[in-house]
């Protein structure tokens, strides 16, 4: 009798622990009990195992409460799978939402992510799986071939650490510019003036002076935003954060995504995140095809004379790149040599009136006038490894990734911004990591 009860007890215990293990997970440490600014969704509130604030609608019913569902693929490829705590009812059936985020760490206080699922035309075009019955099949929730396009990346910044999330602005925007602004209404503004869009005084900050043209730039009333992340294909897509004391969600926003041409002469901006195929000469598009944001044409007064092509080299994991101390010594010698070579080269270019924005990424640009060919990338690759700029270096926090192996940086979800490159832009993006 006793034995029978004991057996049943053990059995029930096993079942319930099995259910707990499948049904919920504990969020990665970095997110627990904290609030994060999502470039697309506003503020997300994480507890140990739940997340609220990521709001969506399906069949006219709202979902904004989620719980951590599967985290077993987080360390290997950055997947975090959430399950909706609210259900939506359609045709008498209750559906649960399953959302797969692929996260990439940028700094200790910022990430970017993509959703991995096909767009649901009958559920607000969101990339969420709605299922009647529980599923724990990761490959049916995270469909890698249905990942959001490269340019549509979303950024997360931990509340209170916005300043720490700053990154160098990408090379094409390193200048002080006059600009014209074309709104989605088709009207052009800022045409006759000597407008000021400045990056040269602080490589992580873009400032706008609204005296000559009062069109709000980067949705910032204060006219000052911080670069927080970049992805690159044939064009450069970068996100800025607006630290204004408040934003209203119509004229002003926390985040703006810019798509900019490699020569820094054209850009397209939109609030929250770039949209699919948002190239610098086109407007961002809503799902219904309507134009959003603004197009900009820039004329540089000055390209920033950042002579520190020699980066702040501290914390760079050179050893992992080359594979040891010996490699490191050789590397330093080579680096110094290359630095002197490029410094001299840079002076020559500068005195011959060429673009003084001579830095690592420009080496690539100079060698590859047509970024579609991919020529010059090998050289850029070498340069990146030898002397990564602050904004190009991997920000890997190896300690929090147990299975990290040197040389495997490319596969790590901790890969930094600035390392995704795409060959052959034909309206479709297929990212290739070159670092
Ligand atoms: C986040 O959620 C927790 C638990 O629901 C709540 O106690 C806390 O006030 C929330 N914080 C914010 C900033 O919304
Ligand atoms: C969150 O997790 C920590 C550490 O695992 C634990 O000490 C704490 O009690 C948990 N808090 C809640 C509200 O579950
Ligand atoms: C759907 O959910 C509602 C509310 O929780 C519940 O009353 C109903 O029985 C559920 N329907 C099915 C088919 O499970
Ligand atoms: C969900 O489970 C119920 C009960 O097992 C089953 O009748 C139904 O067909 C399942 N639905 C799907 C979509 O598999
Ligand atoms: C998981 O889902 C994939 C894709 O839908 C499918 O091919 C595979 O058979 C499923 N695996 C299991 C164990 O159900
Ligand atoms: C630019 O100057 C022209 C001619 O001086 C004037 O007609 C036009 O309104 C000005 N445009 C703007 C946007 O100020
Ligand atoms: C903005 O431009 C005006 C006119 O050129 C100038 O007087 C003012 O000092 C500038 N403001 C800032 C903050 O640079
Ligand atoms: C950013 O905004 C917060 C909240 O308004 C403020 O406390 C902080 O000082 C600002 N930081 C900077 C560097 O302006
Ligand atoms: C941002 O991303 C969402 C998908 O998460 C997409 O629907 C939307 O069009 C993108 N752009 C803007 C400006 O919201």
Automatic annotation (TrEMBL):
Signal sequence residues: 1-23
Lineage, opening ranks: Eukaryota, Metazoa, Spiralia, Lophotrochozoa, Mollusca
Identification of the protein by name: DUF7042 domain-containing protein
Transmembrane region(s): 318-342
Species of origin: Potamilus streckersoni
Biased composition range(s): Basic and acidic residues: 363-373, 389-401
Residue segments, region Disordered: 351-376, 389-408
Pfam families from the UniProt entry: DUF7042
Keywords annotated in UniProt: Membrane, Signal, Transmembrane, Transmembrane helix
DUF7042 domain ranges (all copies): 169-276
């Amino acid at each position: 009798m006793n034995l029978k009860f004991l057996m049943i007890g053990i059995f029930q215990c096993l079942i319930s622990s099995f259910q707990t293990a499948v049904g919920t997970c504990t969020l990665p440490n970095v997110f627990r009990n904290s609030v994060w600014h999502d470039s697309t969704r506003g503020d997300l509130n994480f507890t140990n195992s739940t997340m609220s604030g990521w709001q969506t609608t399906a069949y006219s019913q709202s979902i904004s409460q989620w719980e951590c569902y599967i985290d077993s693929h987080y360390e290997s490829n950055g997947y975090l799978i959430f399950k909706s705590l609210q259900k939506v009812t359609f045709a008498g059936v209750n559906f649960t939402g399953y959302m797969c985020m692929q996260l990439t760490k940028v700094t200790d206080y910022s990430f970017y992510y993509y959703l991995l699922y096909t767009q649901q035309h009958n559920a607000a075009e969101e990339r969420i799986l709605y299922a009647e019955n529980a599923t724990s099949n990761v490959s049916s929730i995270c469909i890698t071939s249905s990942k959001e396009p490269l340019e549509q990346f979303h950024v997360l910044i931990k509340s209170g650490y916005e300043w720490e999330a700053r990154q160098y602005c990408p090379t094409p925007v390193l200048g002080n510019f006059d600009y014209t602004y074309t709104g989605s209404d088709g009207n052009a503004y800022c045409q006759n003036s000597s407008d000021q869009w400045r990056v040269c005084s602080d490589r992580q900050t873009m400032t706008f002076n609204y005296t000559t043209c009062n069109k709000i730039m980067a949705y910032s009333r204060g006219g000052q935003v911080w670069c927080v992340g970049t992805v690159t294909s044939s064009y450069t897509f970068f996100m800025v954060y607006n630290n204004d004391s408040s934003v209203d969600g119509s004229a002003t926003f926390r985040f703006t995504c810019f798509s900019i041409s490699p020569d820094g002469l054209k850009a397209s901006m939109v609030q929250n995140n770039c949209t699919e195929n948002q190239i610098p000469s086109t407007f961002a598009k809503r799902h219904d095809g309507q134009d959003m944001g603004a197009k900009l044409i820039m004329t540089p007064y000055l390209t920033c004379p950042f002579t520190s092509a020699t980066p702040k080299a501290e914390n760079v994991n050179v050893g992992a790149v080359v594979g040891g101390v010996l490699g490191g010594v050789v590397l330093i010698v080579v680096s110094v040599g290359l630095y002197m070579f490029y410094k001299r080269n840079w002076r020559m270019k500068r005195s011959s009136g060429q673009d003084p924005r001579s830095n690592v990424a420009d080496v690539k640009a100079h060698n590859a006038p047509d970024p579609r060919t991919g020529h010059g990338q090998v050289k850029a690759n070498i340069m990146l490894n030898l002397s990564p700029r602050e904004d190009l270096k991997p920000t890997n926090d190896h300690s929090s990734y147990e299975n990290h192996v040197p040389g495997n940086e490319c596969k790590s979800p901790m890969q930094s911004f600035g390392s995704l490159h795409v060959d052959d832009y034909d309206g479709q993006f297929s990212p290739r990591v070159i670092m």
